[in-house]
Amino acid sequence: MTSNSSSSKRLIRRRHLLFGMISIAMTLYLVFLWMMTTTTTTNHYHHVHSDDDSVHPTTTKTQQQLLPLVVVKSDFVTQQQQQQQYRNKKMNDKNNNSTFATTRNDKNSGTDTVATTSTSTSTTTTATTFTAPTFVTVNAPPQTEQEPPFIHYQLYQKNRPYNITFGPYTKCRLGITYNKRGKKPIERVALPTYLQEIMDVTTYIQTNLKILSVGDSVGIQFHQVLEEAIGGVWNDTRRTVYQNAWGDHESVSVLTVNQTVVAAFRMTGLLLPSGKNQPPPNAGPNLKTGAGGWNPQHVQQLLQHEYTITTTTTPTSTTTTRITKFDVMLFRIPHGWLTLDTITQHNLHEAILLAHDLFGVNIVVLQTLFFNNNVRTMDELQQLHRTNDMIRRFVKEWNHSTVTVLLLDFGQWVDQLVHWNAQHMLQMDVRDTNYTLQRLGCFKKFPPSLAVACATLENRTDCTCIRNRLSIDGMHWCMESMGGRILAATACLIKCSLLSQRQYQYHQQQQQSQQSCEQRCNDDFMSLKPASTIIESYHKNNHSS
């Protein structure tokens, strides 16, 4: 009896032990399944690829993963090579069966689909080299037809001059010209050899960016030569003028050359929230008001503008799309309409953020102010220099992750040109700091500075001098001479921003790289370096292996 009882107890204990082991095994198996599920979910989010900071919209901020950008640098990379790299990567991603489509934020692209093109515009030659820095982004592009943003610029000597096609009122015609009444003759001569050697460069541009020019009539001047540089031609059906100011002076316009979009938005004040619905530059009743407001309807005219894009891939296709946003703003502060005390860091900050809110821009090229007819006294001249120092500090200290700001030091270049012209052509005593304030008489308003507008003081009268081909009137510029370097500097700066965004993961690294690149652009193009030196360096960089 005792033996049977002991055996029964041992059997029960064995069963309990077996059941316990089974329970433990099942628990471990469930834990293992839970861990595998968690790991899979984590890896699922990390599988999202992008060439910027964007992630799939279903992820939260805590799930965003900054992935390093892999960049292949090259001294010579053609647009066709970029496109082939893009297509190869897209095919690899397709073969890898990516579960999430990548997205793109405002930093680098628009919201519409943009197809690629591999041919030059009609105004460029068959040359396919572009100036350094060049880059190819190997990180996965978005799962759309849009390439990463790019800008290429090509430099030529003046055997390819600009026609000033879109700026009939600002042409610097050589010889004798008269006003619209056939009176007040003005004689204009070509630049002296030294200045010709500086200005002997023409720039043509290829880009898939949407570029917006904001500024006064000088800003419109810069914009109109940009239109020519991307391939715009007279009576171009791809060009639309939505608004005019002062009669037929253009105020709001768009030109599209396949995937390239450039638009103008004339402002006679800073682009500030307080200017909303205030009279714009073309306000009536006589269309001559210098109002500094802006009209939301004009903003929408640009954003809702439709244009067509034709692919060059096989099979070719034509797509109609809308602008919806811009990538870059070229910002000319309308100093001619403003007092210097209104140009403050606070107002510049407000203007740039409003431009981002209204137009979506993420890159801003900000110009320093140049000496002009509005500077009438030594106090105003000193204040102009202080304002430019403030603008330089403002750009250097700018720290905003959404918008990149770069400096085009146009004011410093004008100072160098005016100083040389006054010293060598006019034989003025430039040690006297007020030499720029000596002016032509007989002007009711804004008499031109001799140092800015005159080619020589020989045969000068109180009212006239033989004019140079730097400035039309002491305020506007001869883009036939100066446009090439201005556009080269602008394209160079935009490329600095694009390159820094691709080459570095962190904002501080991007800033340091960008500032160094920005300085090189200004040293090259906003300087008195001979054009031949710059072009020689350009070809050397682009053909070196």
Automatic annotation (TrEMBL):
Positions of the UniProt region annotated as Disordered: 85-119
| Membrane-spanning parts | 17-36
Bias (Polar residues): 94-103
Keyword set for this entry? Answer: Membrane, Transmembrane, Transmembrane helix
Please identify the protein, giving its name as recorded.
Uncharacterized protein
Q: To which species is this protein native?
A: Nitzschia inconspicua
